[in-house]
Amino acid sequence: MKKIIIGIISIVSWLNLSAGDEFCGLGNKAFKAGEMITYNVFYAVAGIYVNAGTATFSLTQERMNNVPCYHVVGEGRTNSGYDWIFKVRDRYESYFDTTNLQPLKFIRSVDEGGYKKTENVTFNQHTNTAVTNDGVFKLPNCVQDVLSSIYYARNIDFNKYKVGDRIPFSMFLDNEVYNLYIRYMGKETVKTKYGKFRAIKFKPLLVKGTIFEGGEKMTVWVTDDPNHFPVRIESPIAVGSVKVDMMGYRNNRYPVTSMVSFR
């Protein structure tokens, strides 16, 4: 589920740029407080998909140290009938500045197939540092956490790019800075379990893990309207493959004009 969340998000190689050169100071034009999006996670072996889990993302507006911020909570879990195969109970939280979408605090509590981890990160934008359970870490400009990356990337103007272009940014996770990217793959219509959408397609560069392979094997489709929220994610995994479909949304900032038909 961690890599699914990272994949809804991600990503870029440096291309002789720093993330700060191109993307520092992106403002929010894509979402508003009160938004909630839900997903179903389907698992497949031999081409047969079963509904194995759910994920939700909810967004509120709060203040942290007197700074107005968005507070997003992402939760992922396997359905009880599939817990015996690989039980997942994950909760991610991010607080990020409303003005520049830079993270202020990140909290992670995961239980994935018996692997458990809790992480608490405080970001300091003025000193470009992160304080974690394990110490203080120096950061580049405009670094993102796992969840803030999703909402930051939703504000990218994909019309500026050509098919095949790589769009860079950096992410801090597990006490490391990852220089990742999204490869823009153009636009197409995609049919999901929820409906048919005109979509922007891209491939995020993934960090190799225990479930997902590294590289550009994941594909993400986001709405081709100002909301830019993901409607489908597909990826091979160690055994089989997964498909994640958006199954509900509310309090989005704009009408979902990209939806061609419902189911």
What report would you give on this structure?
By secondary structure, the chain is mainly β. It has one domain (2-262). It has 4 helices and 15 strands. The protein has helices at residues 2-9, 19-23, 83-86, 146-153, and strands at residues 36-45, 48-64, 67-78, 89-97, 103-112, 115-124, 129-132, 135-138, 166-173, 176-191, 195-204, 219-223, 230-236, 241-250, 259-262. The protein has a 15-stranded antiparallel β-sheet that branches. Strand 7 (129-132) and strand 8 form a beta hairpin. Helix 1 (2-9) packs parallel to helix 4. The longest helix is centred in the first third of the chain and has 8 residues, at 2-9. InterPro entries: DUF3108. This is DUF3108 domain-containing protein.
Topology of this structure?
Layout: H1 2-9, H2 19-23, E1 36-45, E2 48-64, E3 67-78, H3 83-86, E4 89-97, E5 103-112, E6 115-124, E7 129-132, E8 135-138, H4 146-153, E9 166-173, E10 176-191, E11 195-204, E12 219-223, E13 230-236, E14 241-250, E15 259-262
Antiparallel strand pairs: 1-2, 1-14, 2-3, 3-4, 4-5, 5-6, 6-7, 7-8, 9-10, 10-11, 11-12, 11-15, 12-13, 13-14
Helix pairs in contact: 1-4
